[in-house]
Every structure is written in C-alpha cells, then in structure tokens.
Amino acid sequence: TTRSWDFLGLSSSSPSSILVSSKMGDGVIIGVLDTGVWPESEVFKDEGLGPIPSRWKGVCESGKHSNGKVRCNRKIIGARWFVDGFLAEYGQPLNTSDNQEYLSPRDANGHGTHTSSTAAGAFVGNVSYKGLASGTVRGGAPHARLAIYKVCWNVLGGQCASADILKALDEAIHDGVDVLSLSIGSSIPLFSDVDERDGIATGSFHAVTRGITVVCGAANDGPSAQTVQNTAPWILTVAASTIDRTFPAAIKLGNNKTFLGQALYTGKEIGFRRLVYPEASGLDPNSAGVCQALSVSPSLVAGKVVLCFASTTPRVSIFRAAAVVRAAGGVGLIVAKNPTDVLTSCGDNFPCIEVDFEIGTHILFYIRSTRSPEAKLSHSKTLVGKRTLAKVAYFSSRGPNSIAPAILKPDITAPGVNILAATSPLDQLADGGYVMHSGTSMSTPHVAGIVALLKALHPTWSPAAIKSALVTTAWRKDQSGFPIFADGSPQKLANPFDYGGGIVNPNGAADPGLVYDMGTVDYMHYLCAMDYNNSAISRLVGRSIVCPSEKPSLLDINLPSITIPSLRHSTTITRTVTNAGASKAIYKAMIDSPFGITMVLNPGVLVFNSTTKKISYTVTVTTIHQVNTGYFFGSLTWTDGIHNVTSPVSVRTEVLQSYEDD
Amino acid sequence: EGKSKVHIVYLGENQHNDPALAVDYHHEMLATVVESKEIASDMMIYSYKHGFSGFAAKLTESQAQRLAELPGVIRVIPNRIHRLQ
C-alpha cells in the first residue's frame, strides 16, 4: 500500500481526493472475515480517532489463552472468533503441528492483518520490504473502524468452514458493520447462490438487503475463463491488477549485454561469476535445465549462477530450484518463465531473478555459444510511475460467470500484486512486521476501503448504487489514454471478463452522475429468473413471493453492465437509471457497439429534473453474425458533458445451441 | 448412518424479533429429530439468529434428511471448507 493508494488517486496530499472529503472514512465500520488480527501492529493505532460509533453493538473477545489475548481500541472496535464449525469437522484440538495458531482473534497466519490493514490501517511512514517499495503504508479508509471476525484458521495455509463464515456474517449484521470484506473463496464448480455450502452468497444476501456492502475476491484461478468465484449479483466481486511499480534487477552478461528481470533481491551485487545451464546428454538436452526438476551437483554449480526454465507451476519451481542451487553452493539463479506478475523473495535474500522466455533464451544462446559464460547480478530497484503500465494480474480469475453468464463477473479490479502491508510477526516472510503478498485477497480490501469512503460521503446509497458507481466510473485506460492489458498467455487487451468495469477509480465513483440501483425486489427478479422455487425465494426474503408466470429475463436485471451470452437475432433489454447528481441534467448516449452488433437506444436522451429522478430505457441489440461467435465487447456511455456513466457490453452470437465454450 | 457431520439447517429470513426466541425455536426443531432437548443442545454448534435464521449442528445423514422434510426448512446442507485467496 506504499504505492497502491497513490496509483488509485487517493494520495493523502491531494486536496481534491475523496480521502479528504470523506474524512478518511470516519464513522464507517468495516467488518473483515479472515484469519484475525495482530492488534499491536502500529497500523492499528487509534490516535486521532474519535469515540466508537454509538450504533456499534459488537464485542471484543480476548480469547482463551493468555498468549493469544487481544485488546481492542478505537481502531479495532470488535474482535471475535468462530472455530466450532471447523473443529467439529476436523476434530479437537486444532492441529497446528505445522503452524502456530491462537484460539482467539489473534492472527498467527498474517493474512487477516494484511487485509484489514489494507482496508482501514492508519498511516505508518518509512516502511519497506527489505529496502524495496519504501513509503507510507496505510488503509484505504484510515479513519474507518475495524471489526475483526476470525473464521479462517492457520491449518494447511488457511482454511475456513462455511458454518463459521455464516455465523460471523450473522453476528456482523447484528453488530452494525457497514462494509464486509471477505478474501475467501472455494473452488470450481460453484454451488448455487442459495446453497449454504457456499456460505458466503446466502449470508451476504441478508447483509446486502440490510444495506451492508459485501466485497469478495474473484479468486486466483486465472487466466483461464469461467474461473471467477463469489458470483452472486448482490456481491461486489473484485479482480486483481498490478500497479505502476516494478522491481527490476539487472543481469549483465560477459558479452556486455544487460537484461532486466524482476526480483525481490536486496542483497549485495553478485559480481561476474561463471554462468551455467544444466544441460543433459542424450535425446532431450533441455531436460536437466527444468526448474522444477533441477538436480545439480556442487561440482557443477558451486560459486556459479544457474539458469533454469520453469515450464509449470512457476512459484513452486522457483522455490525448489533456489533451494537446490543454494544447497549445491550456487550463488544465484536466473529463472526463465511465463510472465506471472507475482514476486516472492527466495528466502534469506538469495538472488533469484525472473525473466521471460525470450530473455531466458537469449541468455541460453549466450551460454551455448561462449567458452566461459559469465553473469553479474544486481540487486532489485523500485521503479514507480507513469512508465509502468498496470495490467490485470495473471492469476486473477476471469469471467464469464459459470452460474449465470448474463451477470458480469468480476465487477471491478483493484491492486493485488506485490502489496506491502502489515502482517503477523509469525509470518515467516515478514520483514519488521510487514510483508508483500499477492492475490485477489489483497485487491478485495482495497475496494472495501474505497466503499468505506463512499459510505462516509453517501450514507444513504444502497450496495447496488455503490457497485454501480464503481463499475461505471472505472478506468479502462491509463492516464495517458493507453488501454489496460491483461496478463495471460499471451498478454492481450483487457476485456470485461478480465476486469469487470475496469480498474477502480475512487474519486470518479464519488460523483458518478447516474446509478443503476437495485433492492430486494431486483434480487427476487434474479432468483426467479434463475428458476429457484417460490418457497425458497419466499423464505430467503422473508415474505411470500410468487414468481411471475412468464419467467423474468436475466438480461433485465438492473446491473451497470450488459452481458448477452446467447444472441440469436434481436433482443431488447431494459435498464433504469437514477440521477445521483444535480437535479436538472440531460444525458446523451454514446455507443461503442461490439463487432457485428447493433445497439439501438430508446430514448436516446435522458432528461432529469426535480420530479424525474429515475428513467428507464431500452436497448435493442441485434447481431449480423450468421455463425456462433465468441464474445465481442463494447460499451454504452451516458454523458451530460461532466459525467461519463459507462456500462461494459459483452455479446456472444449463438445461431446454434452452444455445445461447449465456443 | 452412524457418523455425524456438521450440517447447516437454513430457515431463511429471521421470523423472530427476539434472538432468544429464535434459539429456542432452533433447539425445538432439532429436538424433533433426536430424542430430547438435551441431546439437541449437545448437537447444536451455532444458532443463526440475527441476520437470518438457521442453525449448524452435527447430524447423521438420516437426521439431516428428516430435518429437511420439516416445514419451514429451506435446505439442510453439509458444511464445507473455504480457502484464503
């Protein structure tokens, strides 16, 4: 977070930032369901915070054992833990043979401390990770309060039972939180939106109908399509992007050529050393140089720099290869791999520099063509600013939504790569109480913090209005007008299935112009359209519901996006916009139709005044394609000259029934 | 049949203004499929009583099936594990 908030336009030094106008989220309570919190971290100091909001009804449970006790303050106003569902499944006592854990809200894992400090941590200056990424860490809403619900336990990397998650959501609704942040997911295939095995969709439905925005991660199963999780339309689902910061490290070869890789290496420069690539004899000379299968003897690599190529699971490969090279006396490692954004220190500051296959191949050709190849490895530097483009992260899960493809997911994208934030001192990667982590776990609390700022500015906005404001104002281009890319194989221009509306633009969302609002009735419309039965829907919403005999269309859910997964000839969809700006306003449409698709609006102009605050319009979408196509993308923007209210549009033509994801 | 596993019995929107009444209702409902209220109390893990209604309890498959057939029960579903992202 030493850079991510500046990247998003929420610099504390900018007077026009909503950080100032929202009083840094003062008065808003963010509930975080995660691995707990390390309350003594400086990021949770409560200096300058006023009294705890009077509506707060939560509690601070200190825990059973003296070493795990937690004390709250005016920043962490609530802390609870829910383990019974987990223990009933796994047996007691908690098996923490691999990792320490506390039966209290105290965070042994570090993940919950990272996410909660990202959402609402206080300003702490002069923080870095081993000298890299230095600056001031803070949360998105530094004056918001935190309510900690520990539901994930430090077993096998962090596990959480749906019974515990549901209990935490039930209590959080009672306690009076305004925003909920859940960096938790499950696995594909998904359970339905009304299936409690999901644990999140059902509980969050009840939270959202009470005005609580629920922010969840999209998951880390990208870049494959249809991997996005937490897809219910009432959830705000967050993808992950890089920011305008990199950590280049130079590799200088004996032929005087220099290549730049990326690393988290802050040790001394490794002067010119012999450079080796473990080449096998026989039919497959490359087999010995595969990172994940690296097996090198001290006689081959002692005192040398090793090059290897990672073909699969790069992160595991790098750790393993670094350990092997180090054990054999090697002094450095160059890893050639597919671009994956995420960087991790190779332990004890061992120099392992990551390059792409192109650079790796150049280095290999140099080794193969030189009698005594040499390389010099520099330590990493922190490069920040406009010349570094943000991209959708390689790992970030992608749409379309596998439950309801007409509901665009993810909704929005936020920084989630190499994010420096507070952690537990027990985190083995920690440096002085801080660590760099990557994942949609990290992008989720960024959005939760921004939602807290919006809640402080607009306390009456519904969760759907907040989502709409975020989606329709998001960035699809960088400051210089350059489009945003999505990392994958190969890298490509990002589309709504990569980033939803785009990269979150907090200052834009504070003044969106128009919003696509929704309430319980709209969610019932969705549930009817999904063929859930009347009695289940009635119980869910707490009153008798009879779905209309003519099934509603998913395409008419009042979302700030338009996604048509199966267009044959022509279809007409309806949207209703609510004026969230000055009462007198005239909006005109700008259409960027997907390739081969025509979009006709009625009306083409929206006129708002003191009596007309909501206007419905229709869009008739027609395809000229005569074959089944993939998705084509476009946008629909309503503009009054000041605000641009942009909906992402995704359309797939299907003249024949789809038999697979074509 | 013999092995109990954590199940979530989901009843939808909370129909009780008083959380204590919701808890009593959950115990009574569970007691209808076990021998007594005392056993029901031992099996109960959580009552969901504020934002929505339901409970989590350790149930055998046949107990889960019988609960699922009671009026007012939307679903009875096994607990499952989520992971950090």
Strand content of chain A: 25-35%
| Mean of pLDDT of chain A | 93
Unreliable runs of chain B, pLDDT <50, ≥5 residues? none
In whole angstroms, the N-to-C terminal distance of chain A is 39 Å
The counted number of beta strands of chain A is 35
How large is the radius of gyration of chain A?
A: 26 Å
**Helices and strands of chain B: which structural class?**
alpha+beta
What does the main sheet of chain B amount to?
4 strands, antiparallel
Mean pLDDT of chain B: 92
Helicity of chain A, as a percent range: 10-25%
> Strand order, biggest sheet of chain B?
2-3-1-4
Q: Can you tell me the residue ranges of chain A where pLDDT is under 50 for at least 5 consecutive residues?
A: none
Account of the 3D structure:
The complex is a heterodimer of chains A (662) and B (85). In chain A, the strands form 9 sheets. Chain A has a 7-stranded parallel beta sheet, with helices on both faces. A 7-stranded mixed beta sheet of chain A has the order 14-13-19-15-16-17-18, with helices on both faces. Chain A has a 5-stranded mixed beta sheet with strand order 28-35-34-30-32, covered by helices on one side. Chain A has 15 helices and 35 strands. In chain A, β15 (270-276), α7 (298-301) and β16 (305-309) form a beta-alpha-beta unit. Chain A has 662 residues and is α/β, with parallel strands linked by helices. In chain A, α4 (111-120) packs parallel to α10 (440-457) and α5 packs parallel to α6. In chain B, β2 and β3 form a beta hairpin. In chain B, strands 2-3-1-4 form a 4-stranded antiparallel beta sheet. Chain B has 85 residues and is of the alpha+beta class. Chain B is built from 3 helices and 5 strands, in the order βααββαββ. The A-B interface holds A 34-35, 82, 84-85, 88-89, 109, 111, 152, 157-167, 169-174, 183-187, 194-197, 199-200, 202-203, 206-207, 210, 217, 219-220, 439-441, 444, 535-536, 538-543 and B 5-6, 8, 10-15, 19, 45-46, 48-52, 54, 56, 58, 72, 74-75, 77-85. β9 (184-185) of chain A pairs antiparallel with β5 (81-84) of chain B.
